[in-house]
Amino acid sequence: MNNDFNYKFILPDDSFSDLVENIGMFHNPSDRVKEVVLMPDGRVDLFFMQSESAPFQVILIGLETFPEQQDIPPHTLAYKISFKPLGVEYLLQTAIADILNSAKILSPDFWGFGPDDFKDFDTFHQKIVQKLNELLPHEIDERKRQLFELIYASNGEIKVAELSEKISWSSRQINRYFNKQFGLSLNAFCKILRFKASLQHIAQGQLFPELNFTDQAHFIKEIKKFSGVVPSELLKNKDDRFILLSVLKEE
């Protein structure tokens, strides 16, 4: 965090841990555009945001498979909920296959939120937790819950065949579910999770593969695919452009 760009994230309590990764905010209080690079992280973000140049908006951003540079206008304030895939299905109650590497604008009064809820982050957080509690499902398909539990526990380093055997759900059905609901294959999603796990190592200055990459060249290729730069350049994080890496460094 620096004086020109502020961010904050709160982890959910256990009741939401399968559905929500965090609730957060970012603020560009300066008079300058803030350049950031959004990297694939396996999350779906619901943004409530406003700035001097744009009215209050609610935006749902789907899963991403490649890095994208974004310019955050001056005096922009955004609050967000980062959903895990199951959260999209059970809390947002929607499929997001149609917004892979894209986004859609929702109603400005989505979930009953509006500009008045931007007084401070703590107030927003309390209201969003209350809303999520209202939407919390009584039960989740146990195969899906186990599926994601195993995927996250392995940092994406688990084969579809092994998942299929452990949860008694055919590989074909799993991939059909992923493509229909999220717009990408399970294998593609797992590679994103492995990349995200690698970022934690890079944030600590480890520029060699700690996970199951074929070799150093493969590691560099995958990091560049999802971040746009090689690991050493990513570690430098010039001008704090890679917000996700900045957050990991502070954890």
Spell out the key features of this protein.
251 residues; Immunoglobulin-like; Arc Repressor Mutant, subunit A; 2 domains; 6-stranded antiparallel β-sheet; two-stranded antiparallel ribbon; 9 helices; 21% strand
Task: Describe the 3D structure.
By secondary structure, the chain is of the alpha+beta class. It has 2 domains: 130 residues, Sandwich (Immunoglobulin-like); 109 residues, Arc Repressor Mutant, subunit A (Orthogonal Bundle), CATH 1.10.10.60. The N and C termini lie close together (12 Å).
CATH architecture of the largest domain: Sandwich
Number of helices: 9
pLDDT average, as an integer? 92
- In the predicted model, the low-confidence regions spanning at least 5 consecutive residues are none
The major beta sheet can be summarized as: 6 strands, antiparallel
β-strand percent reads 15-25%
Rg for CA atoms: 18 Å
**Distance between termini?**
12 Å
Helix content: 25-40%
Across the major sheet, the strand order is 1-2-7-4-5-8
Q: Please tally the β strands and state the result.
A: 8
CATH class of the largest domain: Mainly Beta
Instruction: Give the CATH topology of the largest domain.
Output: Immunoglobulin-like
Topology pattern, helix = H, strand = E: EEEEEEEHEHHHHHHHH
Which class of secondary structure composition applies to the elements?
alpha+beta
Shape: globular
Number of domains: 2
